[in-house]
Task: structure prediction
Amino acid sequence: MRYQALGEFPEKRHIQFRRNGKLLTEEVMGFEGFSGNQSILYHLESPVRVSKIGPLERVELEEWVPDAHVHRHLRTHAVEGADDPIMGRRVLMFNDDVEIAICNPTADNEAFFRNGVGDEVLFIVEGGGELESVFGTVPFRKHDYLVIPRGTTYRLKLAEGPQSWLCFFTPGEIEVPSRYTNRYGQLLEGAPYWHRDFHPPTELVTHEESGDFELIVRVGAGYQHFGLDYHPFDVVGWDGYVYPYTFNIDDFEPHTGRVQLPPPAHQTFQGPRFVICSFCPRALDFDPRAVPIPYNHSNIQSEEVLYYVNGNFISRRGIEVGSITLHPSGLPHGPQPGLAEKSLGAKTTDELAVMCDTELPLRLTTAAKPMDDPAYALSWSHDPSATAT
Result:
């Protein structure tokens, strides 16, 4: 990401900086010790200070181990909204590198939240609102990826209307793929987006007030609750390379080839041993003999999760908006019978989907079990009377 700055800060790092005579507290927030990207924030109060130590709310994902290793289809569209944007997340699958959840929040965050152990990406399938944070305000809207780096204290305010989100959490770092940038970090001409497509905080609102404020911090064992006697959004200025931002999937510039391009052509973000890709409306392959839907493939060392946002999904039958498919390692997958022939001659596709490919196998949670469509594993059968067991 590019260097950004908001508010007031001194001309050099690590020197005295005062506001109305008060010495401000400098905080360096960075990755990889002191070797990765970082931002420097200037607080009215010490960010270390807490007035109350509350309970540690332990959280452990409950795994669902199905009786068969098969392709899965999870129907999420009928899940009722509940809770706020933090506690309302329902993790459906996970491994050591990533958690994938859905969230249909119905209420704003009352408490402030900070993820102390990883980065977050919220894809806004439906809805919108504002992320309020120590870095300032980030408006978000339908089809935004909202990227929140670890250590960011924030609160989410929802716009009116239904909300439906796809959520990713990683103990690693969410980054732009390195192949999209030059050695200086600038995006290349061949990248599917440009720096101006990424939207950092727009306004820094400094709160100078006392009171009783709750802060929830995600830690390794769950959620640690704290009490603060000052408003945590007390930053008067910051600069650096670490901050929350949005990127809208409709700004992704898809590539088209003479024949079908592999999924890495749609990559949007990378994490440790996983990628997030955007499948967007685009022109299809232009060779007169091209088969304009994905070919069958065996990703022997990866697993594929696809969330269907909207449009006509030409390589899948029985899929609806809000469907999630999981194609696990060790099994080939591809278009269902008859769809390759049916696609011949198509010039465009209007499908919109978000994909996550992982190197490590994904484990399902008990939250996924009631959403599971057991018939999906047999949907490649030519016999329509075939039934799953």
